[in-house]
Batch of 2 targets.
Target 1
Amino acid sequence: MLKKMFRSLKAISPILATLLLIVIAVSAIVITYAWVITFLTGTTGGAGVFLKYDSVYWNSTGTKSIVIYIRNEGTSDAEIDSVYIGTSSTNLVKQTSVTYDPTSKIAYANGGNVVTITVTYPWNTDTTHYFKVAPKVGPALEFSLKSPKS
């Protein structure tokens, strides 16, 4: 009885097997193509952004604040997305009390303008502070500076 059952089973025809392999191969190519295009667009889109800080002003009159002057020396315009400050490179905190000049937060390519970032932050005297200025696209600017002595 078992022999009869195995003899009665039929396999996929060679034409159907070939079509199935073609469909699998084409779908794999489409998926790979979509991934490569997405990857290349994400990595090359920010290649022209190169943020650099000109100077930092530690404001101690009234409410303490830090004023950061940023310039973009890359070939693509950069829009500043967020600013992080901390007392070590591992405890950076995203700042919410930030104002920008210009308010568009755009640093134009080739050093076209300076973006002034004013952060209300209770900084400590004679302490190293770590900064991270992140654009929407491209690499973040990270640096550290020691605040002035009182």
Target 2
Amino acid sequence: MKDLRIRGRDVFALAPLRSVSAALLFAASALTAAPAMATTDPGNNGGTEPAVRNPIERTRLYVSPVSHARRQADAWRRSRPQDAALMERMASQAQAEWFGDWNRDVRGDVDRLVSAAAASGAVPVLVAYNIPQRDCGHYSAGGARGADAYRKWIRGFAEGIRGRRAVVVLEPDALMVTHCLSAQKLEERLTLVREAVETLKARGATVYIDAGSASGSRVDEMASKLTRAGVARADGFALNVSNFVGTARNVAHGEQISRHVGGKHFVIDTSRNGAGTASGGEWCNAPGQALGAAPTTRTGHRLVDAFLWVKRPGESDGTCHGGPQAGQWWADYALGLAKRQGGSLASR
């Protein structure tokens, strides 16, 4: 069975649902709705922009039938049934699939995922993560070898979607982690993101440009980068990807950014923010963290299109705090997140 490399991690090839009982396990994990944020109307550019609807409202997000969490649940089923149940609940939630320089055939890999999701009547969340000089050489270093290589790669990614429904979170950290770039290279990066938005939108994708988190950037600086990176053509921006900042704080931050970018909507990664924050702004395998609100497109907030699990909970950020290499499955960390979950896991 072919393995897909997802941000340096092993993700097993897509397979059909195992059985009706597996599907019932998904349903059984749905306890109560995710906590909705209070509806607000922060305004957009002084009220000069028209109201925009959530493009993924009431969308059923795709749950892959194979994941590290599900394999862990299977491994613990007899010896550790309570822990297996926690892993099963984690596995029953929609999680993003990451694509980057480890995909030898990105068009084919995207096509297989989108096809599987379409066949199940759901919409997948994909992450494009291949910008040149990715992560400025840190734990997730890599990316395409130059601008032309990236253009070719993102065209292949978009061709895999082929006009079907898909949500794409575009290039985590690309606008926030830029300290290694010269002014010329920064401009090139913003151009590549802008072109990627156009390419993906032409193939029918719903696109959110990554905009860091509430703890990582100034509102005016990020809004400026988003504008130069083509957020006007995108569906909005994404906050808190692979971070731990609480949902309420990200909502407030997103509202401020939205005012500077024409009232654009946003999505929030809630995969590991149930504890609300991490001590000292820690971003790498922060201890004591918890699962946050379950993935949903019913957030109760006019500007927040979805709570998503963009970061796959239980996969390491890097070799900090005793973790394995970036992207590798860390069962003990996953179990801690599940035991300390900050909100009930919701149905999709």
